[in-house]
Batch of 2 targets.
Target 1
Amino acid sequence: MAEYKGRYRFSFGPWNIDQGGDPFGPAVRKPELLKKKMQVARDLGFDGMQWHDDDVVEDLDKKTAAEISKTSKRVKKMLDDHGLEAEFVAPRLWFAPETVDGAYSNPDPKCRRYAIERTKKCIDIANAIGARNIVLWLAREGTYIRESKVGREGVLMIRDAINTFLEYDPQVRILIEPKPNEPVDSALIPTIGHAIGLSYITVDPRRVGGLIESAHSILAGLDPADDMAYALAHKKLWSVHLNDQGGLKFDEDKSFGSYNLRRAFNQVRVLEEASYGRNGEWVGLDVKAMRTQKQAVAWKHLRNSKQTFMDLLEKVRTLDTKLEAQFKAQRDYEELDRYIVAHLMGVKA
Ligand code: 3MF
Ligand code: MG
């Protein structure tokens, strides 16, 4: 087993410290300043932050190139001052009126042009804050009813958009973050298998990979550890959004390991066994504080997720793999099952 003894680097995005609003009720916490969020990151031992383009430059659509550059430089300086790096920038392609019916696969060419121009701005911001990764969460690239779009055309439109970005910036890397549904009913690129398949029909597959979010795999009815293993086999697991999810509900973004510890253990194990992080990959979180959480402590979900990862890493590293191999050789999976459960609980098998 090739074990990576290096240090894991952790990141989260500013949206992970939020105001607790949901579709049925308003915000319950006041917004926090970016500076405060960076202090939380530093105090909790995170190494970097993830960004949406407009987390860096607010009201991006209304800003000139000079304004975008100036604001990005200010955020870069703030990051430097806090000893933090920028992991990636993601274009927010689901908020503007132009993206109501999708971004790159929008049936209206004017709207598609908007999405492409917006993503170019996002790439400029990434360069300005020192991130070489662009994450595409393809939020509205899909349908509410099957008949509304031609699936094949939609996929090829997304491919064409990605090709445009690969050509726009010869250094940029595109990480597709698949999700099967929400906000749309049915996504065109619902799983990591789809994302990797798509990468191979772009002009430069070596620069197109994936980001796997635990909850997104679970929403697709899949096991996140297996999804990660699949992407690792293709050398295309370039980031993760660790979190947890209670079954097929709305996207909950629960703290990592808080719902299904064994499922979380297997994610950490898959990463550890593949020496994840050796090529600079980050352990990203995408977690939300519960709506009930009060302002002053609405950062504990981040602390807990990171700590649970480290605790599970210890469980991975102390697993008796000889014993495991013995059970496997005997095909005694019942014994193996009990051993894993006992190991996780810290009791005798
Ligand atoms: C939605 C998500 C997104 C992405 C983010 C960065 C708002 O389910 O997970 O969070 O992670 O846009 O790619
Ligand atoms: Mg995510």
Target 2
Amino acid sequence: MINADLEKVILSAEEINSRILEVADEINRHYHHTVREIILITLLDGAIVFTADLIRHLSVPLRLDCIRVSSYGNSTNPETAPRILGTLKSDVEDKHVLLVDDILDTGNTMQKVFSEVAAKKPASLKTCVFLDKPDRRQNNFQADWSGFSIPDEFVVGYGLDYAGRYRELPYLGTLKPSIYSQSSS
Ligand code: PRP
């Protein structure tokens, strides 16, 4: 049963799950036998669903850390430059770090986090995103691993929200236009 607010499903739960296995396999092959442990930093809130599914298929031992970056509020458009809220609990110097986010859109969030973490001198720094919207990019940022490349459509589900809602949906979809006009209620 699809959520009644959705116009269409873009990625089913099955499609997402099978792609996550492939991405995890690529990450495992990259770190296999070369690193003892990674620090995986997930970008709250949107990436928690992807992160939770991804890490259960990673064979490289990891420590989990979180960073909160807020930039979009309840809008579908970027309002301000990304702000990093709070600090990491891990000391990442000389550690192998993997940043995980739900979506690479303009690229401003990842670029900001990447440069802040890189300044702490990790042994290596890689990035993995669930979704990539290359048409929206405002810089040259590219993720090392990406689940799906999608066109410039506003999507919800699988961790992605509209006005804080729909993150729990196990699939990815677009909202009916009427939902946007009701959003202030
Ligand atoms: C979303 C998403 C990414 C960021 C990507 O975060 O989770 O972190 O935007 O956009 P960008 O590439 O244009 O910078 P949001 O601020 O909506 O917070 P959320 O993770 O809590 O949903």
